[in-house]
Design brief:
By secondary structure, this protein is α/β, with parallel strands linked by helices. The protein contains 22 helices and 25 strands.
C-alpha cells in the first residue's frame, strides 16, 4: 500500500533538507495547484520558474507536460518537480463504462483492471495523479454525480473504492504505469439538498459514519495517497475548512498520511460560504483545518499564496505548514519524481494504442449491463431468425454520448456506437434500418462547463420529432424487432447536471410508446445512469447499458445476440417516480413496517426494481443456507455458506448477496444491510457453495445513543440471494460477554 510505505532514508532526508532550505513563498508554492488550459501560457511559466506551483491540472499534451516539468526542474531555485493531475475518471484514451456501470458489475477485479488500464495510459502521457475515484454515496438520483460513484450502499461503495485505488496505484507509485488516486469528495457531497449539485448537506454523525464515510475509509485502507475535500457545507461547516473532518477523522483517527487537496477553488470559496472573512482568512482556516494543497482556478488567484504573510503574523504554525509540504513532497518522492521527473518520450504513442486496452473496455462493458425485463425471453435474439432490425433513438449512433461524461481527448471516430455494433454483428445476415426519431432537449441553464476547452459537448441531435416518430413507427412495423436506444445525453448527468425529473428527456417517451404500440417486439437499451421513469410503458425487454464506453456498441450487440449473458445488478434502488426520492433499501423500520403501507396516497411504497436486482438469460436457485455457529461471541467472525444453482439452460453469472438485519441494540438498525457478495459463473445445472465471513467488524456500527462504535449482543437475521429482497433466511445470536 503506497501511502503507508516508508520512504528510503535518503529520500526522506532529501525532503527534510528541502523543507529546511525552502522560503515560506516556496512552501506556499508547493501547496498550490492550478488549471492550465492553454499551451505555452507565459504567466504559468513564470509561476513555475519562481517556485510558486506544486502541481498543475488539466494539461494533457505529453510534450507540454514535459516542457512545464523542465521549467520546474531546471529553472526553479530548488528544482522540485511538479505533479500533473487530471480527472481520469473512467479511462483516458480507452474509455471504460462510467463508474456507476462498473459498480453494477459487482466485480472488483474488473474494476481494478479497468483503472489499471486508465493509469497506464495516463502515466504514459506524463500524468501522475487522478481525481478519482469518486466515493460519495448517492441516494438521490436527481444528483447528476451519482454517475461517478458506486451508488447507494456503503459496503458496495467501499469495495469499489478500494478496487479503484488498487487499480490506479498498484503496489508502487513509481512504476511507469501507476498513478496517485484521489478519492473524493470528503464528505457528504452526495447528500446535497434536493439533489442540487454543490448544495449543503446535513448529516447526523451516525449517518456520516455508517453510510457516507466507510467508502473513504476503505479507499484509505487500500493506500490512497490523496483525498479531495468537498465543495459544500457539511452540518454548517464548509468541508474544505472542516477541522473535525480533515484533521480529527481523516488524519488522526484514520491515520491518513497522504495529502489533501481542495476541490477547484473550494479554499477560495470559504469566504463565499460566509465562513472566512476574506481570501487570506480562508487560506489560514483551510490550512489549519488540515487542507494541504489548494486547487485554484488560475495561477495568480490562489489564496494559499497569502500563507507567508499568515506565517509572519503567527496565524499559522510553522509545523503545520511544514507538515503540509512534507505530505506533498513525500507523494512526489513515492512517485519517483525526484529521480525520474519525465515520462519516457514515446510512451504515450505506444501505450495509448494498445489493442488489449480496447478488449478490456469491451469486457468491462459486457460485465456492467443489467437486464431489467425480459418478457417471454425475447432476449437474446437469434440473428439467424431475423430478416430486418430497426435501431431507433437519438442515442443509437451518438459516439459522444456512448462514452459518457468526463472524457476529454478521446477520438469519437474510435467509438463503436450501438448502431455500429448491431450492424457489425448482423453484417451479411439481416438488414438494419436506423431512425433517430426525436431530439433530446438542450440545457435550460447554461453551465460553466460549456466554456471549458476539453469539455467538448457535441451538439445534441436535432430532428423533426413528428416526422421522426412516424419514421420510427414505419421502420418498427417493417422489422422483426425494434431496438430502441433511449436515455439521457451524456451532458445531462455528471457535475452541475442535476435534474428535477426522471422522465426520458424530449419526446422519447412518446417515441417509446409509439414503437411498442406497433406490436413489433421492442427492446429498450437504456443509455442512462439514473433510474429513469418509463411511466408504466412496457417494452418486452429492458437492458440497462449505461454509457458503455469505447467498445460499447460491440458489447451491447454481444449481449443482445447472446454472445454474452448479462449478469450485472443495480447498485441503487430504482424508484417508481421522482416523488419517492429518496428511497433506499437499507431503510429503518418505523411505525408502519410494511413497505406497501408506506405511505403515499397515490403511489406504492416499493421501488420498481430493488437494489441488487438484475435478471439473466438463465435462472438461479438458492438452497442450504448454513450459518457456521449459533450463538457466537461479540468478537467472533461467523462463517455463512449458501448453495447457488444454475437452473436454466445457458451458462450465466449470478451475484450472490449477503444481507443482515440486527433485531435490537443500542440504536435501531436498517431492515437490511449488504455485508458480502460474490459474482460467480455457473454452467447449466451447476451448483456452487459460496462462502462468506461475516466479521465482528462488519457487525459494528456507530450508535448515536452510545456516541461511539458499538457491537451489540443481539439477534441477527441473515438473508442470502440475488437481490436485496432475497427470501432465503436464517438467524444467529450474539451472546453477551458472559
Ligand atoms: C470540480 C469537481 O467537483 C471535482 O470532482 C473535479 O475533480 C475538479 N473540478 C477538477 O476537475
Amino acid at each position: 500500500m503506497s501511502q503507508s510505505k516508508v520512504l528510503p532514508a535518503a529520500l526522506a532526508d532529501r525532503i527534510e533538507r528541502l523543507i529546511a532550505a525552502m522560503t515560506p513563498e516556496e512552501k506556499a508554492g508547493q501547496l498550490s495547484q492550478f488549471f492550465v488550459f492553454e499551451r505555452g501560457s507565459e504567466p504559468v511559466d513564470e509561476e513555475i520558474a519562481a517556485g510558486r506551483a506544486g502541481a498543475i491540472l488539466f494539461v494533457r499534451d505529453p510534450s507540454e507536460i514535459t516542457r512545464l516539468q523542465r521549467i520546474a526542474v531546471e529553472e526553479s531555485r530548488l528544482g522540485i518537480p511538479l505533479i500533473f493531475a487530471l480527472d481520469v475518471i473512467h479511462g483516458l484514451r480507452t474509455i471504460f463504462p462510467v463508474p456507476i456501470a462498473m459498480a453494477a458489475s459487482w466485480d472488483p477485479a474488473a474494476v481494478e483492471a479497468a483503472q489499471a488500464v486508465a493509469a497506464a495510459e495516463a502515466r504514459a502521457t506524463g500524468l501522475h495523479w487522478t481525481f478519482a475515484p469518486m466515493v460519495d454515496v448517492a441516494r438521490d438520483p436527481r444528483w447528476g454525480r451519482m454517475i461517478e460513484g458506486a451508488g447507494e450502499d456503503p459496503y458496495l461503495g467501499g469495495i469499489m473504492a478500494a478496487a479503484q485505488v488498487r487499480g490506479f496505484q498498484g503496489d508502487d507509485l513509481s512504476s511507469a504505469d501507476r498513478m496517485v488516486a484521489g478519492p473524493k469528495h470528503l464528505a457528504g457531497y452526495g447528500a446535497a439538498l434536493g439533489g442540487r449539485d454543490y448544495d449543503e448537506a446535513d448529516l447526523s454523525e451516525s449517518e456520516l459514519r455508517n453510510v457516507y464515510l466507510p467508502p473513504f475509509k476503505a479507499a484509505i485502507d487500500a493506500g490512497a495517497a490523496n483525498i479531495m475535500c468537498a465543495y459544500m457545507t457539511l452540518n454548517g461547516v464548509p468541508a474544505t475548512g472542516n477541522h473535525w473532518l480533515i484533521t480529527e477523522i481523516l488524519k488522526e483517527e484514520w491515520g491518513f498520511s497522504g495529502f489533501t487537496v481542495s476541490d477547484a477553488n473550494s479554499a477560495h470559496d470559504l469566504a463565499k460560504h460566509n465562513f472566512a472573512r476574506d481570501g487570506a482568512d480562508a487560506a489560514v482556516r483551510a490550512l489549519n483545518a488540515g487542507l494541504d494543497m489548494e486547487m485554484a482556478l488560475e495561477a495568480h488567484d490562489s489564496v494559499f499564496n497569502t500563507l507567508p504573510q499568515a506565517l509572519a503574523a503567527g496565524l499559522i504554525e510553522p509545523a503545520r505548514l511544514d507538515d503540509a509540504v512534507r505530505r506533498v513532497l513525500t507523494v512526489k518522492a513515492q512517485l519517483g519524481l525526484f529521480d525520474a521527473p519525465y515520462a519516457e518520450p514515446d510512451a504515450a504513442v505506444r501505450v495509448l494504442d494498445e489493442p488489449a486496452h480496447r478488449d478490456a473496455a469491451r469486457r468491462a462493458a459486457e460485465r456492467s449491463f443489467v437486464l431489467l425485463r425480459n418478457e417471454g425471453q425475447v432476449l437474446p435474439l437469434d440473428p439467424r431468425a431475423l430478416r430486418k432490425v430497426a435501431v431507433i433513438g437519438p442515442l443509437a449512433d451518438s459516439a459522444r454520448d456512448t462514452i459518457g461524461p468526463w472524457v476529454f481527448d478521446h477520438d469519437n471516430a474510435e467509438t463503436v456506437t450501438v448502431l455500429a455494433g448491431i450492424r457489425d454483428h448482423l453484417a451479411g445476415t439481416a438488414e438494419v434500418e436506423h431512425v433517430t426519431g426525436v431530439s433530446i432537449e438542450q440545457r435550460l441553464n447554461p453551465s460553466f462547463f460549456d466554456d471549458i476547452p476539453g469539455f467538448d459537448i457535441a451538439p445534441l441531435v436535432s430532428v423533426d420529432d413528428d416526422a421522426g416518430i412516424a419514421a420510427a413507427v414505419a421502420a418498427a412495423k417493417d422489422s422483426d424487432v425494434a431496438l430502441l436506444v433511449l436515455g439521457e445525453a451524456q451532458n445531462m448527468i455528471g457535475e452541475a447536471a442535476s435534474r428535477s425529473s426522471l422522465d426520458l428527456p424530449g419526446r422519447q417517451q412518446e417515441l417509446l410508446e409509439a414503437v411498442i404500440a406497433t406490436g413489433t417486439p421492442t427492446v429498450l437499451l437504456m443509455m442512462a445512469a439514473r433510474p429513469l421513469d418509463l411511466k408504466g410503458a412496457s417494452p418486452a425487454a429492458v437492458l440497462q447499458i449505461w454509457y458503455p464506453g469505447t467498445q460499447g456498441g460491440t458489447a451491447v450487440a454481444n449481449a443482445v445476440f447472446g454472445k454474452i449473458v448479462p449478469g450485472g445488478k443495480l447498485p441503487f434502488t430504482w424508484v417508481r417516480s421522482i416523488g419517492q426520492v429518496p428511497l433506499h433499501y437499507a431503510r429503518m423500520v418505523t411505525h408502519k413496517p410494511k413497505e406497501r403501507e408506506m405511505r403515499y396516497w397515490n403511489e406504492d411504497g416499493t421501488p420498481l426494481f430493488p437494489f441488487g436486482f438484475g435478471l439473466s438469460y438463465t435462472t438461479f436457485a438458492y438452497s442450504d443456507l448454513v450459518i457456521g455457529a449459533d450463538p457466537i461471541g461479540l468478537v467472533d467472525d461467523l462463517a455463512i455458506a449458501v448453495t447457488v444453482t444454475n437452473t436454466g439452460s445457458v451458462a450465466g453469472d449470478e451475484v450472490v448477496q449477503l444481507y443482515i438485519h440486527q433485531r435490537h441494540g443500542s440504536a435501531a438498525r436498517p431492515v437490511r444491510e449488504l455485508k458480502g457478495f460474490e459474482r460467480v459463473t455457473l454452467a447449466p445445472g451447476e451448483s456452487r457453495v459460496v462462502r462468506f465471513v461475516l466479521s465482528a467488524e462488519r457487525r459494528r456500527y456507530w450508535s448515536s445513543a452510545a456516541r461511539g462504535w458499538v457491537a451489540d449482543a443481539t439477534t441477527f437475521d441473515v438473508f442470502v440471494g440475488g437481490d436485496s429482497v432475497a427470501s432465503l433466511a436464517g438467524t444467529f445470536t450474539v451472546a453477551p460477554k458472559d
